[in-house]
């Protein structure tokens, strides 16, 4: 780093004091995190051992989307859900010898996957909704009421506070991911085993 890039740093409290502040914050949010943990467990269940076709991108995304949701980072959850599915669809074409398909974008991957019956029409429609109405609203700045829904449009349509809308969208995005996984592996179904919090989210 060049010397002229040095900058002033804000003073920091001691580690014991910061640790205590974190402990208090953890206790204050524990009930909400427990409820979100229950949702994740109900959706994902125990680790299934399935191979992820999206490679490192998908492996990191599915771990971080669960951790992000547990900790209330809903916008991050939504974006990571899209990363996971897009990486998985792209990886499935790469395994088939068509690496060029990976470079053509999420819409192309969804449309072609439906056309080739890699995924169902119904799932394809849900993925397009995740891409256009949900992910794009959070990922791209858009003028209000210009025909391409932005976040302000979604707030108005759903009649929810921004934080509650983001949580609702995150839950729906997770359910799309889970349905995507279940469609690819129909035998991955809940059983009578009581599940615990996955190690990836703690």
Structure report:
The protein has helices at residues 15-28, 30-44, 55-70, 74-95, 106-115, 121-139, 151-158, 162-184. It is mostly helical and 202 residues long. It has a domain at 55-184. Helix 4 packs parallel to helix 8 and helix 6 packs antiparallel against helix 8 (162-184). It is globular and about 60 Å long. The mean pLDDT is 87.
Stretches where pLDDT falls below 50 for ≥5 residues?
none
Multimer state: single chain
Task: Report the order of strands and helices.
Answer: HHHHHHHH
Count of β-strands: 0
Radius of gyration: 20 Å
Helix residue percentage = 55-70%
Largest sheet: none
In percent terms, what proportion of residues is strand?
under 5%
Number of helices: 8
Question: What is the compact description of this entry?
Answer:
Helices cover 63% and strands 0% of the residues.
């Amino acid at each position: 780093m060049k010397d002229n890039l040095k900058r002033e740093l804000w003073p920091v409290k001691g580690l014991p004091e910061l640790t205590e502040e974190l402990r208090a914050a953890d206790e204050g949010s524990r009930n909400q995190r427990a409820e979100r943990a229950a949702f994740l467990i109900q959706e994902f269940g125990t680790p299934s051992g399935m191979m992820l076709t999206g490679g490192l991108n998908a492996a990191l995304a599915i771990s971080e989307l669960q951790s992000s949701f547990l900790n209330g980072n809903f916008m991050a959850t939504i974006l990571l859900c899209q990363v996971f599915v897009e990486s998985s669809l792209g990886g499935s074409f790469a395994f088939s010898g068509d690496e060029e398909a990976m470079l053509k974008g999420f819409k192309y991957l969804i449309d072609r996957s439906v056309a080739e019956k890699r995924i169902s029409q119904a799932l394809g429609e849900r993925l397009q909704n995740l891409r256009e109405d949900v992910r794009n609203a959070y990922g791209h700045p858009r003028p209000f009421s210009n025909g391409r829904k932005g976040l302000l449009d979604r707030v108005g349509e759903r009649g929810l506070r921004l934080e509650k809308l983001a949580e609702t969208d995150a839950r729906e995005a997770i359910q799309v991911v889970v349905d995507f996984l279940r469609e690819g592996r129909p035998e991955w179904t809940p059983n009578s085993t009581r599940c615990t919090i996955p190690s990836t989210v703690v």
